[in-house]
Give the backbone structure.
Amino acid sequence: MKKLPVVIALTFAAVLALSGCDKLTSKPPSFQNTDVTGLPYAQDFALLDHNGKARTLADFKGKVVVVFFGFTQCPDVCPTTMAEMATVMKELGPQADQVQVLFVTVDPERDTEQLLAQYVPAFDKRFLGMYGDAAATAKMARDFKVFYAKVPGKTPGSYSMDHTAGSYVFDKSGRVRLFLRHGQGAGPIVADLKQLLD
């Protein structure tokens, strides 16, 4: 009779193995960037893309979405971030088609639809430039807790913009998952996005 519990235990173990019980075997993601899963903000947006189409986060469901705030006349952070994301797309190979990079301008005064349509796809034709009027830009910045401010230049039109340099990442179901640090190189980003794409 003592053998019966052992037989039951072995049978139960075999059933679990055959059923592929994911909850017992799968590990939670181990991200290299900041895991912000469950963040109570950065939930959605309502802007126009550089083709003039109204967009919300729901339009990109089924894709991993990377949201970066910048402006086209930015001399350093913005072009290096966009170039870095273009490298990420190359390194992802065919999986890159499941990623949508959004460049949200914090300078709607100068960044027109036409200018965004030239600037953003120059890094990767799949990238989209996003814009709104001053009120829509301010609302999205508040909703995402992103800082931006105009820095006066020598002339009224030569101002610059200070702004948050990182990017938010949403998973395929539209949940915010990561905050990407600026200037880390493509490798850690590729590794993290692959975990969200698998």
